[in-house]
Amino acid sequence: MSQPKPEQLVQIQYGPQPRDWMDPAVEFRKGTFCYSALAKNLNYLGLPNARDWQPFDEDWKLPPDWKRIILDGMKERLEKFRSFRLFMDICVRCGACADKCHFFLGSGDPKNMPVLRAELMRSVYRRYFTLAGRLLGRLAGARDLTEDVIKEWFYYFYQCTECRRCSVFCPYGIDTAEITMIGRELLNLIGCNINWVLEPAANCFRTGNHLGVQPHGFKDSVDFAVDELEELTGIRVDASINRKGAEVLFIVPSADYFGTPHYYTFLGYLALLHEIGLDYTFSAFASEGGNFGLFNSHEMIKRLNAKVYAEARRLGVKWILGGECGHMWRVLHQYMDTMNGPADFLEVPVSPVTGTRFEHARSTKMVHICEFTADLIHNGKLRLDPSRNDHWTVTFHDSCNPARAMGLLEEPRYILRSVCNRFHEMPENTIREQTFCCGSGSGLGTDENFEMRMRGGLPRANAVKYVHQRHGVNLLACICAIDKATLPPLLEYWVPGVEVAGVHELVGNALVMRGERPRLTDLRGEPATQAEAVHA
Amino acid sequence: MESKELIGEAWFERVLRAYPPQGAKFLGTEPDPFRNPAGHTIRQALRTLLDELYQDMDRDRVTQALDSLMQIRAVQGVAPSLALEFLFQLKEIVRAQAGGADWDLMNGRIDDLALIAFDLYMKYRERTYEARANEARRRVFLLGRRLMADAPPAWPERGGR
């Protein structure tokens, strides 16, 4: 072959080859997808097509009749969920959602526009379930269901964190997260699922929590925290487990007693609940508020959630208090009541300290700890010394689910303003109901997906960077266990110098407890920045 | 319009061609830095780089601009050669549009930028590895802490940042 001439060498085609969006080919490049679920976890949960495979394999070992299974599954869900049929039919492709997805903003990949991500499924819906699609095919935006389409669904439906930011902007109220949920349900029918979702789900089913911690391990963890809190404050708290007849069952995400910085929030809870003398107990079986069934199927949500009311009934409590977690609260707030309720054996929650009746939880009987604490502060029941948090300049990240799925916007801010002296908001279009996702929710917070998570987290980190540079913010407070696990690496990459904490860690720092000794450190064991004021 | 501005526009447009067209349109037009962090960062950085190429090549300023670009490109799933391609694309644009400029000087300066950018690209790739390792340690934080009850109290030494 002759040598190319210099002018031929410089004939470079910059940019990607233009491609029709209907072309389903995707490249599984390491760092940008999650590994497949292990067969043992599928078997444990009784899910179909357990096998060894990986997304980058050529052959996904689908069942022989996979196409029929998917189409039957779609048909069943179109009949069962009116919302799904509506969402398939009513989108006019106005584009209001197009630029609202953090994965689109961080990657520039148009198939991360919520409208186009949904089109990946709508095109199949049109082809098999509408007359126009059956007759006109591609002209009507319809396409055949092929193995490549399945791979594309897997790639993009496990690239949506179900944060629902796009749905805030849709003039028709289409909830794209629900399309992703159905997409994942369908993929599950043929065994295309990810381990980071199914392993926690299998563990939860077996031991009651994501980590597979057994009751004695749970007790060890709680006892250890009680010991540490005593070292820090001089006060020994009583954190009972499985105690029948307690007034309140307290359920937290399992990361709170195993990971950091969650653990300091857990210490904060223990200090607070001791100080107000709440008669509460943990359950070693409902030892997890999180519910990875939400990222798998509606049936799995129900299966994993059932333990909450079952344990409340067994222990004979009056109502349930829930810790800082994101998707846990979407399930508790929007699904639990209808899936496993009515909890008519419980009472409408009433704070024994303030007498406040939590009417909004009249049906579920479960109160968020931020609601509970904000009420305590509002009624002047806590002695707080916000100067103990003076080493932090704080901003608040609205975790997607508490913000958008349950409207918990003011309570955490009210608490933060009470326990910290320095608090600054991020720009308005990045907080409250417009908050940007951490980029790792809905089971995507796994190590092998790291690069994709950094892309998806760019809009969040960018707003943090702004307040870091403008106001010297060095702490991002949040109320979600996944946030606490995944925002630290996100900020380590994009905004070094900003740490992550739960709201109740800061409450625990500021809380002046009766009989405590002067605090030499904060709950992290970091030396106090100034001599402790006298709290007579 | 001055030739520098023409070059700036041509360069920005060329850089955006690395993204699929439907995405590039948004990245290139949305001015809000919080709605469009990637596009905004790219535009600002290219402007700074071009200014410095025509002025004194202040090393701090060009490093800062390249830093913000490489931070984004290092996690956008492209090979290092593609991540740095935008600097070599500039040569072609400058040669075509800036007839009167001292081409040798500009050529050398762009090469300098490329060397800095190589280092920054690696800095951010390495940072992803560090962040991944630290994340793994945080996940089992309490386990390690219980196993090493006598370890020093400073938590960064026990796996935190």
How would you sum up this structure, described in words?
The complex is a heterodimer of chains A (536) and B (161). By secondary structure, chain A is mainly alpha-helical. Chain A folds into two domains: 39-193, Fumarate Reductase Iron-sulfur Protein, Chain B, domain 2 (Orthogonal Bundle); 200-510, no CATH class. Chain A is 45% helix and 4% strand. In chain A, α2 packs across α11 (195-207), α3 (66-80) packs antiparallel against α10 (176-189) and α4 (82-89) packs across α10 (176-189). The N and C termini of chain A lie far apart (90 Å). The N and C termini of chain B lie far apart (50 Å). Chain B has helices at residues 3-16, 21-29, 37-54, 59-73, 80-97, 103-139, 141-147. Chain B has seven helices and no strands. With 161 residues, chain B is mainly α. The longest helix of chain B has 37 residues, at 103-139. At the A-B interface, α5, α12, α20, α21 and α22 of A face α2, α3, α5, α6 and α7 of B.
What does this entry show, briefly?
Chain A has helices at residues 6-9, 39-45, 66-80, 82-89, 102-107, 114-129, 131-136, 147-157, 165-169, 176-189, 195-207, 215-233, 262-275, 298-315, 327-334, 336-340, 369-378, 400-406, 410-419, 450-456, 458-471, 481-494, 503-510; strands spanning 248-251, 280-281, 319-322, 366-368, 394-396, 475-478, 499-502. Chain A is mainly alpha-helical.
Number of helices of chain B: 7
Helix content of chain A: 40-55%
Q: Give the total of beta strands of chain B.
A: 0
What would CATH call the class of chain B?
Mainly Alpha
SSE-based structural type of chain B? mainly alpha
Q: DSSP strand (E) fraction of chain B? A: under 5%
CATH topology of chain B: Globin-like
Average pLDDT of chain A works out at 94
Alpha carbon gap, first and last residue of chain B: 50 Å
Structural class of chain A: mainly alpha
Basic shape of chain B: elongated
Give the largest chain-chain interface (CB within 8 Å).
A-B, 55 and 51 residues
Shape of chain A: globular
Radius of gyration from the alpha-carbon trace of chain A, in angstroms: 25 Å
